[in-house]
Amino acid sequence: MGNQKLHALQVALVTHYYTTGQPDLLAEFFKRKVRLLIIMRHPFYYCEDVSSSLIVIEDGFSKIEKRFKFPKVNELLLYLRDVILTIFVILSVRRNLDVYIGADPLNAFAGLVLKRLRKVRKVILYTIDLPVSRFKNEILSILYHKLDIFCASKCDFVWDLSPRMELVRKAFGWKLSNSRKMIVPSAFPLKAKQMIDETKICRLLFVGHLKESQGLQLAIESMPTIVEKLPSVKLLVIGGGPFQKELQRMVSEYSLENHVLFLGYINKHSEIEEILSEGGVGIAPYVPDPKGITRYADPMKLKVYLACGLPVIVTDVPWMAEIIKEYNAGIVIKYDKNEFIDAVIKLMTNRELYFKIRENALKLAQKYTPEEVFGKALLNVVSS
After folding, report:
1. Residue 211: pLDDT band by 50, 70, 90 thresholds?
2. What is the pLDDT of residues 135-168, one digit of tens each?
3. How far apart are CA 103 and CA 108, in angstroms?
4. From edge to edge, which strands make up the β-sheet containing 61-68?
5. Most buried in the list 155, 218, 239, 243, measured by CB within 10 Å?
């Protein structure tokens, strides 16, 4: 009965993007499940290409693909353009929609306008991240949070990636208790191999945007001590970003060129999954920051590590660290070099412990597949 309800749905998913993320996994899930799917993707202002895109998929087959090219403008005008474009494009679709999902308050606001125009029936605010300081401009950040609270109070459903997001809303004046608020955490399909190459257990694996808040500098600072105890250890870094030159300078300073490899940005996620699933330890040494985005979100990186069968070393910053600790699917540390070193040595020198934690990681990953996370969330929407 649940699958029949889902298959009859006509859905719009509108998101902002920089690289791939949770909305893309949600779109992949919908492609196989719903009758009609409209996907609109708008670039963040810091993207080189500020073109928006539209994809219309019916019964699993792509029918329309369009790009809307615009000149680069300032941040405020760019986001205002996105809201207006979304409204006009959805209005141009001949059918009315059952569900509209806006992956941030700007996109959710466009959905509320469309609901007022009777174009959509139910609107979901899908909160991917909700940092205390959304913009460098404090006034813009306050306005963003006020818009988020407005949308959270007016939308039919609120999907938050983590329970900590409500704490941010309360800090900006949220006083209501929305009974239709759901925790819809980040998800990722299982990708682990049945057997791993034991010679590759002594690999530290990092995937992500190379910026200071990701904490990769802690791993590099720890590597000289780790190399002394484990001469075969390697740190593989997948991704690029503004902090890469500084990280490479540190590698040179510590003479770690033979132990730290920068693989760069890998476009095909399947290639990343292949590298990860061969074996090793996934690391996420986030820098603690009370106003940082990671503290209140649910980074997909951790789910990718778990889904590839990697024990995880993570600082106690994101909400998911508590779950990893509870399931013994990794080691949770403070942002501390000695704790990081101890965790690495512990996992890489005790095979029995490594494989036990790997087994726990895979069990935990099964709770966060798209079928489990998105399937349950969407069934709750159509059943209400």
Report:
1. very high
2. 777 888 888 889 999 999 999 999 999 999 888 8
3. 7
4. 61-68, 52-58, 36-43, 10-17, 97-103, 120-127, 157-160, 181-183
5. 155
The tokens for 127 are 């909160």
3-state class of 362 per DSSP? helix
Written as six digits, the tokens of 243 are 């902090």
Hey, how many other C-beta atoms are within 10 angstroms of the C-beta on 77?
Answer: 12
Confidence of residue 176 (pLDDT cuts 50, 70, 90): low
| Per-residue pLDDT tens over the stretch 105-138 | 999 999 999 999 999 999 999 999 888 877 777 8
Q: Which two tokens stand for residue 29?
A: 């899930």
Give me the domains of the chain, ranges plus CATH numbers.
2-187+369-382 (3.40.50.2000), 198-367 (3.40.50.2000)
Three-class secondary structure of residue 384 per DSSP:
coil
Return the higher-pLDDT residue of 46 and 321: 321
- pTM summary value: 0.89
Question: 79 with 45: CB under 8 angstroms?
Answer: yes
Q: What is the distance between the alpha carbons of residues 337 and 164, in angstroms, rounded to a whole number?
A: 27
Q: Which residues of 94-109 are buried (b: 16+ CB within 10 A; e: fewer)?
A: eeebbbbbbbbbbbbb
pLDDT greater than 90 at residue 7: no
- Residue 308 near residue 290, CB atoms below 8 Å: no
CA 379/CA 5 separation, integer angstroms: 8
Reading phi first (left if > 0) and then psi (alpha if -120 to 50, else beta), residue 118 is in: left
Residue 67: strand pairing partners: 53
Please provide the distance, in angstroms rounded to a whole number, between the alpha carbons at the two ends of the chain: 14
How many Å apart are CA 325 and CA 347, to the nearest integer? 15
